[in-house]
Amino acid sequence: MSLTFLGTGDAFAGGGRLQACLHLDGGPEPMLLDCGATALVALKRAGIRPASIRYVALSHLHGDHFAGLPWLILDGQFSERTGTLQIAGPVNAQERVERTFEALYPGATAVERAFATTFVELSERTACELGPALITPFEVRHSSGAPCYALRVEYGGKVIAYSGDTEWTDALIDVAHGADLFVCECNFYDLKAPGHLDYLTLAEQRPRINCDRIVLTHMSEQMLARAADVELETAADGAVITL
After folding, report:
1. 20, 36 in Cβ contact below 8 A?
2. Measuring CA to CA, which residue among 152, 185, 153 is closest to residue 167?
3. Predicted confidence (pLDDT) at residue 230 exceeds the cutoff of 90
4. Among the listed residues 44, 35, 39, the one whose alpha carbon sits nearest the alpha carbon of residue 93
5. For helices 69-78 and 93-104, what crossing angle results, to 10°?
6. What is the pairing mode between strands 31-33 and 21-25?
7. Most CB contacts within 10 A, which of 34, 84, 132, 144?
8. Res. 239: pLDDT tops 90
């Protein structure tokens, strides 16, 4: 299976990077982990047909992680999409997506389309089937008006762990245990900020994380400026990892 980093920036487009979005392929069907506001741009830039995405799992409800959904839905409306779009996310994900959609395009949520958009609610440490994947959410330390999760994703015969946004919590040890790949946010190099990780903390905790590989994402300008100083791999928009 392959993972494409469609967006690796933070909420403020650090380094000119696009917002959080991971594309998984190689299983029965492709899917997305998070769908930041720039996701449609990223999909088309990568030559990925948006209508091929029938499943999206959301780590949490901040705009740089879910606000691309209105455009993904609109693109489907005007490109004659027919396949259902299923979205898994924290409690109230449907309400938050629809409120965002209405703010951007008033009346859009009442439009009849040739495809359905459905929502599945994620619950703490409860495995959830989402199309080609089995997803287990682990609550982490971040604030978005709803529970924030790291996601353990079994897909295409591999296990992908994804931190979402969080400061250090031992839940990351659990979500990444035995994973083939752990995609971990690293917003800062040495700044200790609520709700986000810094590289020095992650490096200190690395011996406790039992996984094959860690790749850093969601990097700010400060972290990008120090990327050459770190030992862990760093992601880039458009990079592909094959497992």
Report:
1. yes
2. 185
3. yes
4. 35
5. 70
6. antiparallel
7. 34
8. yes
